[in-house]
Amino acid sequence: MVSVNNLGVEFSARPLFSDVSFVINKADRIALVGKNGAGKSTLLKILGGMQSPSEGSVSVPNEVTIGYLPQEMKTSDDTTLINETRKAFATHLRRQDELQKLLDDLASREDYESSEYAELLEKIEFLNERIAMEGSDNMEAEIERTLTGLGFKRSDFDRPTSEFSGGWRMRIELAKLLLKRPDLLLLDEPTNHLDIESIQWLEQFLASKSNAVLLVSHDRAFLDNVTNRTIEINCGKIYDYKANYSKFVELRKERVEQQLRAYENQQKQIADIRDFIERFRYKATKAVQVQSRIKQLEKIVPIEVDEVDKSRLHLKFPPAPRSGDFPLILENVGKAYGDHQVFDHAEFTIRRGEKVAFVGKNGEGKSTLVKCIMGEIPFTGHLKIGHNVKIGYFAQNQAQLLDPELTVFQTIDNVAVGDIRLKIRDLLGAFMFGEGDVDKKVRVLSGGEKTRLAMLRLLLEPMNLLILDEPTNHLDMRTKDILKEAIKSFEGTVIVVSHDREFLDGLVEKVYEFGGGKVRENLGGIYDFLQAKRIAELSELEKRPLSESCENSNSGASDQKPISSSGGQSSLAKKDSPKTGKKLSYAEQKERDKIVKRAEKAVKKAEEDISRLESEVAEIEAKIATGQCDETLLSDYASTQKRLENAMSEWELASEELDNLR
Question: How far apart are CA 354 and CA 357, in angstroms?
Answer without folding.
Answer: 10
